[in-house]
Design brief:
2 strands; two-stranded antiparallel sheet; mainly alpha
Amino acid sequence: MKTPVAVQIAGQRFVLRGDEDERATREMAAYVDGRIKELQKQTRAADTQSLAVLAALQITEELFQERRTVEELKKRIREKSNALLHLVQTRARV
């Protein structure tokens, strides 16, 4: 059930409804808020919208890197599985 969760991001209150539980929703909101605060310290962007876009781009970059890592791991698992299967089939014939 999608229970509303009130969170604060960049000083603004949002009521979120999602598939995650309340704790996970709060953790995600805190992560975004933290990224915006980091950017606020590092950049000259003052308005919330610019900071939110920069945070979204950084988080998207992380997501894409994680996806690449997962795909590489899947590829390595497939290769290892195929090698093991080949080894088992070869030994079964002996």
